[in-house]
Design goal:
Blueprint (H helix, E strand, L loop, with lengths): L19 H14 L12 H12 L16 H21 L8
């Protein structure tokens, strides 16, 4: 690097030294942050509570159908399979009309 080129800002600056008290405070902060004890989960899941509150306030206009609030996703899978069968049946019933047996 030549003397004419400027170095990026902050490259030549050195970090300030931390004294022992700040060092200990940082260590304890990191230990608390990395602790394996997590906060206990809420008694009622937040999403269900929000959906329930919206359903009550809107008098059933939102989340009143029960489909969007269920935790079981088997209903969506079952509907997807049934719809695929209906589409396949409609394809074979309406699609290949140009075929003929000789």
């Amino acid at each position: 690097m030549t003397t004419d080129e400027k170095s990026p800002e902050g490259e030549d600056e050195e970090l300030p030294e931390m004294d022992e008290q700040e060092d200990d405070a940082m260590r304890s902060l990191l230990k608390r942050a990395m602790a394996s004890e997590a906060t206990p989960p809420p008694e009622k899941p937040l999403l269900q509570e929000v959906q329930r509150k919206l359903r009550v306030r809107s008098k059933g206009k939102f989340y009143g159908d029960g489909w969007s609030t269920t935790a079981v996703k088997i209903n969506y899978g079952l509907i997807a399979v049934v719809m695929l069968l209906v589409v396949a049946l409609a394809y074979f019933a309406l699609g290949p009309v140009g075929m003929s047996s000789k």
